[in-house]
Amino acid sequence: MDLNTLWFVLIAILYIGFFILEGFDYGVGILLPFLGKDDQQRRQIINTIGPFWDGNEVWLITAGGATFAAFPHWYATLFSGFYLALLLILLALILRGVAFEFRSKDENPLWRSLWDWAIFIGSAIPALLFGVAFGNLVRGVPIDANMQYVGTFFDLLNPYALVAGLASLITFTLHGAIFLSLRTDDEVLTAARSAARRLWLPTVIVLATLWVYTYFATDILERLGINPGVIPLIGMIAMLGTGYMLRRGWDGWAFVGTAISIAAAVITMFIILYPRVMISSLNPEWSLTIYNASSSPYTLRLMAIIAVIFVPIVLGYQAWTYWVFRHRVTREQRLEY
């Protein structure tokens, strides 16, 4: 495996970690106004992700930084072409972070309700638009011979990308409902389990639709054939198994099932892309690849050395954080948010 492929794989791993960890964050935020029947329950829900949400976003920052350093042409074309969508995501994430900090500063019910809906918006928009963005990456976007995106914002809102966005939105919501089942008790636990069971079947239908649609909207048949490998199959089996786990009340295994499904979806998208990083819908020859969009071999080698040193440290710290805050959040304990 050459360094270009290595960094393509590492960036895929960073996005897998981001979508699994931040995915349940988004799901919890989306469900907040609907599962929390009073202020105490909503505080309980928010505190389930309180110790984790900002640390989870480090995966996105790292993925963006790795893309910039390893594949600067990919970064430039992606951020210039998708700038409006990425700006909306950034604004939503800022709104979400502010809402977490401001919500409990005043006991006025209107004030708290305002920030509850801000958390909902700040969670739903990224959950939707990240799916739209990745849908466009595998479908292809108008890129000219100079690696410039020549489309508009509305070109990104095509039917396939919207289905991909709906798939990420509903999958993250299910993921969040299962996470709440692991981290709460009493009425919130009952409501979260009920929501997860109701969300499971629509999630399966949307994911199956996206799977079939991918054969028509991308070049997967031409490049990989009718059977692109076992990864998509593993993802769908894991999602089907999640329904069984939910019915048996095995919340931990259900969470593993949705995590595997998310990982399989990301891996499948990167398999469809490889060795390309952005597909040109105007001319396949104008697509950006891991070779024409990469940094120099020296830069990639230096980055690999730095990654070997610091990635285990970051992973160790985050694992320790999850271990420390592994207990359920109850109504009786002191709630920070």
Key structural traits:
2 strands; 337 residues; single chain; two-stranded antiparallel sheet; mainly alpha
Describe the structure.
It is built from 13 helices and two strands, in the order H-H-H-H-H-H-H-H-H-H-H-H-E-E-H. It has helices at 3-35, 39-49, 53-56, 58-70, 72-81, 83-102, 109-139, 159-183, 186-217, 220-224, 230-248, 251-273, 297-324; strands at 276-278, 288-289. The longest helix is centred in the first third of the chain and has 33 residues, at 3-35. The mean pLDDT is 91.
Rg, Å, rounded: 20 Å
In terms of DSSP E residues, the strand content is: under 5%
What's the tally of helices? 13
Taken from the alpha-carbon principal axes, the silhouette is globular
Based on DSSP secondary structure assignment, what is the total number of beta strands?
2
Q: Could you say which structural class the secondary elements and strand pairing correspond to?
A: mainly alpha
**What is the ordering of alpha helices and beta strands?**
HHHHHHHHHHHHEEH
Biggest sheet character:
2 strands, antiparallel
The overall pLDDT, averaged over residues, is 91
Percentage of residues assigned to helices: over 70%
- The end-to-end distance, rounded to whole angstroms, is 46 Å
